[in-house]
Amino acid sequence: MGGFERQSIECVSRARFNGKRRFASLCGPRAYQPSGQSHSNASSCGMIICRGHAKNRFVKQSSVPNAGCYILLLVLISLGAFGCGRAAFPTSWTTFALQTCDLERIWGHTIAGLSNVTESDFRECDAVCRDDDGDACVGAGLLMYKGVVVEKNREKARILFDQQCKKKTVPGCVSLWMLQRDASDAEGSQENLRGGIELIFACDRGEKHACEALGRYYSMKLAFDYFPSDAQQAVKYHTKACELESSFGCTALATLQISGAGVPKDLKKAVDTFQLQCARGYGLACTDLGELYQNGVGVTRDKTTASKLFHSSCAEGVPRACCDLGAIYLWEKAPEKKKEGMSFMEKACAGGTGDGCTRLGTIYFNGLGVPSNLRKGVQYFEKACSLDEAVSCYQLGVLASDGDDQPVKDDQR
């Protein structure tokens, strides 16, 4: 098999695997579908995914081929392995890192995709970590685990988390268990499976961040395919996190209430939650609220209000809001507006929104409103794929396989 063919298979396989890893829609309302349809076809339940909107002339894409049924194995481990002899851990996420390494802000970046961190955050955390500040080591590890502002290195992140967990620190253990839980689908080792169980115990003890990590994990699974059991688990842990005063948990729970996935559909309650969390300064909730106003879901359609919410959220470090705002401006006829739209889309891509990178790749590859630049287009597709954007991974695989000069058309997916 030639190298070109291997590249194709690797990219397509990665697209299919990464589909399971994707969080909810990164540019438009998140819709989970009890009907059994995949997330990428979510427009059928009345929710418009901006990445796949039929009106969008800039992005030609539809659903990524379903990776097929996959089996979630529940491994029952005897209580003896986790009962007597279980190490006692603190019950709260009390951080002692110096102010130069803001672990809580970095956690928000990791769990919710917020882009209010830079490479300097990593340098500061890494420097303090060398002075044996355990929480700073966790912060550096989380940034390497996420791989947006620094090169992704999950093995090194695992080592840092493990070192701190052995010192019985909650941030170290929760981060380690989250990494193991995320890796358990691909690598079903006993260690990874045990990490997932430890995360459940931590959440049951009232550790908010553990509940957030579990809710995120099940929401990521829902973003690929709908399974009632996953929806129920996502609701369970988002609810628990919300009860522990997690803005992330409350906001994520509200997104499930929009479509009724694992919880009764309640648009009013979802809108109320978004408004409350937005008023408290949580940019992700403001973005979700803006998307509802943009599409007239649960509220009267108001694009002016939507744009204002996107503006404020983008400025506060929510890359999906930058993507939404960029999409609005790219529809404007005035050249200066289109230019501003490209700027917001680039900010979204740099902030870790794979959908923004995919849009930019399509724009440059096809020369839509800009001079055609195939190399730049492919570079954006590669960046999107590195951010676990399944559509771009699949795009690269097909381009490598066919040697095609054009992106994949809808009927070829």
Can you tell me about this structure?
It is a single chain. By secondary structure, this protein is an all-alpha fold. It has 18 helices and no strands. The radius of gyration is 21 Å and the shape is globular. The protein has helices spanning 3-21, 103-112, 119-130, 134-146, 154-165, 170-183, 190-204, 208-222, 228-243, 247-259, 267-279, 283-295, 303-315, 319-330, 335-350, 354-366, 374-386, 390-402.
Task: Supply database-style keywords.
413 residues, mainly alpha, globular, disordered N terminus
CA-atom Rg in angstroms: 21 Å
Low-confidence stretches: 1-26, 28-91, 408-413
Distance between the termini: 23 Å
Q: What is the 3D form?
A: globular
Query: Count the strands?
Result: 0
- H-E order: HHHHHHHHHHHHHHHHHH
Number of helices: 18
Describe the biggest sheet?
Answer: none
- Overall mean pLDDT: 78
Beta-strand percent range: under 5%
Helicity, in percent?
Answer: 55-70%
Short description:
With 413 residues, the protein is mainly α. Helices cover 59% and strands 0% of the residues.
Question: How are the elements arranged and paired?
Answer:
Elements: H1 3-21, H2 103-112, H3 119-130, H4 134-146, H5 154-165, H6 170-183, H7 190-204, H8 208-222, H9 228-243, H10 247-259, H11 267-279, H12 283-295, H13 303-315, H14 319-330, H15 335-350, H16 354-366, H17 374-386, H18 390-402
Helix pairs in contact: 1-18, 2-4, 3-4, 4-5, 4-6, 5-6, 6-7, 6-8, 7-8, 8-9, 9-10, 10-11, 11-12, 12-13, 13-14, 14-15, 15-16, 16-17, 17-18
